[in-house]
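Question (not urgent): is this output format expected?
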Amino acid sequence: MNVETLENIDLSRLTRKSYGDDKGLEQRVAEILKRVREDGDETIYQMTEEFDRVNLRSQGLKVTEDELESAYRKVGEDFLQALRRAKENILRYHEKQKRVSWLDPDSDGSILGQLLLPLQRVGVYVPGGTASYPSSVLMNALPALVAGVKEIVMVSPPRSDGTLLPEVLVAAAEAGVTEIYKVGGAQGIAALAYGTESISRVDKITGPGNIYVTLAKKQVFGSVDIDMLAGPSEILILADESGRAEELAADLLSQAEHDRLASAILVSPSRTLLEETVREVERQLSDLPRAEIARASWETYGAAILVADLREGLALANQIAPEHFELVVKDPYSWLGQVKNVGAVFLGRYSPEPVGDYFAGPNHVLPTGGTARFYSPLNVDTFMKKVSVIGYSETALKRDSQQIALLARSEGLEAHARAVEARFKK
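Got this back:
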């Protein structure tokens, strides 16, 4: 890979988001959703046999208490301690996001306000496949727990032996998940959205997944709410000459190893640092376990971009709106006010992206594909709804009735006007 300048780089290659633009695949997903909606569990069993090569008919879809107890026996004590520390951090951070209902009384006797209420039942999708994600369980379930959601339902594709990874099951138990089902893919999303004989429908679905999951979430939106349409992982690092090539290369590869479609971008006003980091990426790829995936990502969607100064680099970051943004400069806090369009910002060389992925506390479910321009990370509000409260007094309605009626009639809605005026007919 060569160092490129803003004048000669093709930004469309880096900001491409064709993830999910396959009409044939969209139709295939629509068919899966339709089958689950019509035939429920039977379709789930059939598709689990077809896609996961597992027959669950004899044991059922739901994870049992015995399976949870077995999972605890299989995980190491070190893992359990690390998971619980991460849980504490995530809970502490999200507790600060809680808001309360409010009522605002007026001197005329009327009351306006807002009720903040938790959703009753939410579904969490946890990916399987090339990697497993107990951290995703914590990041999706714990904010729902803080919000006060009573029923947290998790679905995840089973392994070839018909089980879920012990670490994932333990994470679910620790995070307060109330039901766990061994079903993945678009059929898992359909089960959550529409319900089956075994799985009751939910109010909202959160969690990342593959292209089938993403398209399924897109198509069930409206029947249920969703968090966002997650695309491939992204990282953009802005570094000055204080950056260290070995560390920056490791950070770039920490995202490139996720997915062949992931993007890893380094931006710097230092050509020397860019060139050293490109060489270091190649060196680290030589012994990386997921090197094939990481190399495909780096060669297709990676970049080393030379900018005139940090200000130009920040403007580029705000234009691309990356999921993860590392600001590896001498005084990162002095630049924080200029950060506008990113999912999460990591300040300084001691805040590498995996700190946020696993442990610090902020949520790692972040907007991708440039949607950081208008989307927020998963948070407590994701699992709450707001209800407006209107309690007008007789004095207030009498005072405002003529203007309300006037506005109603301006829209041609006579019955609206009469509904107000009826209160004051002699």
